[in-house]
Design goal:
Elements (H helix, E strand, L loop, with lengths): L1 H9 L3 H18 L1 H12 L7 H27 L2 H5 L2 E5 L1 H10 L3 E4 L7 H7 L5 E5 L8 H8 L4 E5 L2 H12 L3 E4 L10 E6 L2 E6 L1 H9 L2 E9 L6 E7 L8 H16 L27
Parallel strand pairs: 1-9, 2-5, 2-8, 3-4, 3-5
Antiparallel strand pairs: 6-7, 8-9
Helix pairs in contact: 1-4, 2-4, 3-4, 4-8
């Protein structure tokens, strides 16, 4: 039923969808003081702003971009795949993917909550299989829509449990790709407290463990949202060399790489995400020295 209701909206031009999304972003911002406070705090404490004036400007942009991201997902999920692919204008860094595939040890895509992260796996899955780590939404009625929208092409969804980890590991051993949201807060026992924009954030250790255990290449990827609804540019770059073996050092290393990616398009990062929460059952972060 939800799919039937949303399909006409998905057919609207991307420019219109982004306009509606920007309006939605501001409606949510004013309707939810808690949401607004978290967005402001995460942005202001990140250090990406040079001064208060720049922070205010970036805040206004981030509110609208968050709404755009929510509404454009409807188009990515419900339009025919060929139409979705036509929204991608340029793809930068494809040579890194080809080099990784030639090595035959698998490929780990790290896709933070930046830009149109929903379109990246679908783009890759037009030619190659990819297993994407997936956490079901808290709103259960959204789950059928999300799963149908994400599991298209050669995409396989892997749940955030041991069966999902086994799915990722098997894919890497076959020389295939997996996709992980590296800035998603893991469950208790699945992460460490590492620095993310100068604050302790419970950070998953899975990506580093998979990379070390399989020798898979690690590539950072995001889809930049272009102005005026013109579409998206996909950017891919390899993780810097020197991933440490120690879990905490590896988590700090990965977070630093994700920060560098976010700084390229800070307005398009999902600053409203509750990145600094303490998972249920986990010990709070150690006090600052």
């Amino acid at each position: 039923m939800l799919k039937i209701l949303l399909t006409p909206l998905a057919r609207l031009p991307l420019r219109w969808l982004h306009s509606l999304g920007a309006l939605l972003g501001w409606l949510v911002y004013f309707a939810s003081p808690r949401y607004a406070a978290r967005l402001r705090e995460n942005l202001e404490k990140s250090g990406v702003c040079a001064d208060p004036a720049e922070c205010r400007k970036l805040l206004h942009q981030a509110v609208g971009e968050a709404g755009k991201g929510a509404v454009e997902s409807i188009a990515v999920w419900l339009r025919p795949e060929r139409e979705v692919m036509r929204l991608i204008r340029h793809c930068h860094g494809g040579e890194h993917v080809e080099a990784a595939l030639e090595r035959g040890k698998g490929l780990i895509f790290l896709t933070p909550h930046l830009g149109c992260f929903e379109i990246t796996s679908l783009h890759y899955a037009q030619r190659h299989p990819v297993a994407v780590l997936y956490r079901p939404p808290k709103l259960r009625w959204l789950q059928p829509l999300l799963e149908a929208g994400r599991e298209r092409g050669l995409v396989t969804l892997a749940p955030t449990d041991m069966s999902g980890v086994k799915t990722l590991l098997k894919a890497l051993k076959r020389g295939e790709a997996v996709g992980i949201l590296p800035d998603q807060t893991p469950g208790n026992g699945e992460g460490v407290w590492a620095q993310f924009f100068g604050r302790p954030a419970y950070t998953m250790t899975l990506a580093a463990r998979l990379a070390r255990g399989t020798g898979a290449a690690v590539i950072l990827i995001y889809a930049e949202r272009l102005k005026c609804g013109e579409g998206f540019d996909i950017w891919m770059e390899p993780l810097p060399e020197g991933l440490p073996e120690q879990p905490l050092a590896a988590a700090n290393f990965l977070n630093a790489a994700i920060e560098s990616l976010i700084r390229k398009s800070p307005a398009q990062y999902l600053w409203s995400y509750n990145r600094y929460k303490t998972p249920s059952g986990a010990e709070p972060p150690p006090p600052s020295p």
